[in-house]
Amino acid sequence: MDDQTFRKAMGKFATGVTVVTTQFGEEIHGMTANAFMSVSLNPKLVLISIDHKANMIDYINNTGKFAISILNEGQKDISAYFAGQNQESREIDFNWFNDMPTIKESLANLTCEVHDSVVAGDHTLYIGKVTDIKITDGEPLAFYEGKYRQMQNGAGVN
């Protein structure tokens, strides 16, 4: 199988959209990621997968912590910005939660300490121990077949 076929098959799995953030020194760094999942309830662990080409690897390796913001259906522009799809400079008004920068009005914010990391192919998998959680009501921003989607009446991806 070729890379395009693999990518197309993986696109058939609908996901939510997150922004991963961390602070290194005085600078805040963020990236959009849909490779996110829960791992364990006890202890509370989550996993993110980051491409080795992404600068975020260096920042997380240096700080040992990161935050996850699960985006709501109205935050497509935030996702696009942190995915590098929008090259305009933009001032982000972060919400500070548990001393970590998070995206305001997202459905959930989680702060994490790196519990473990595993190099897997061209990505590093970071398992984060969740240190705090904040939840807000709303509908999720979804990603399916390479496009942003919204849930329709809570019934499914459209």
UniProtKB/TrEMBL annotation:
Pfam families named in the record: Flavin_Reduct
Keywords noted in UniProt: Oxidoreductase
Signal sequence region: none
PANTHER family reported for this sequence: FLAVIN REDUCTASE (PTHR30466), FMN REDUCTASE (NADH) RUTF (PTHR30466:SF1)
Protein name: NADH-FMN oxidoreductase RutF, flavin reductase (DIM6/NTAB) family
Organism listed in the record: Oceanobacillus limi
Cross-referenced SUPFAM superfamilies: FMN-binding split barrel
GO MF: FMN binding; riboflavin reductase (NADPH) activity
Residue ranges constituting the Flavin reductase like domain according to the UniProt record: 10-150
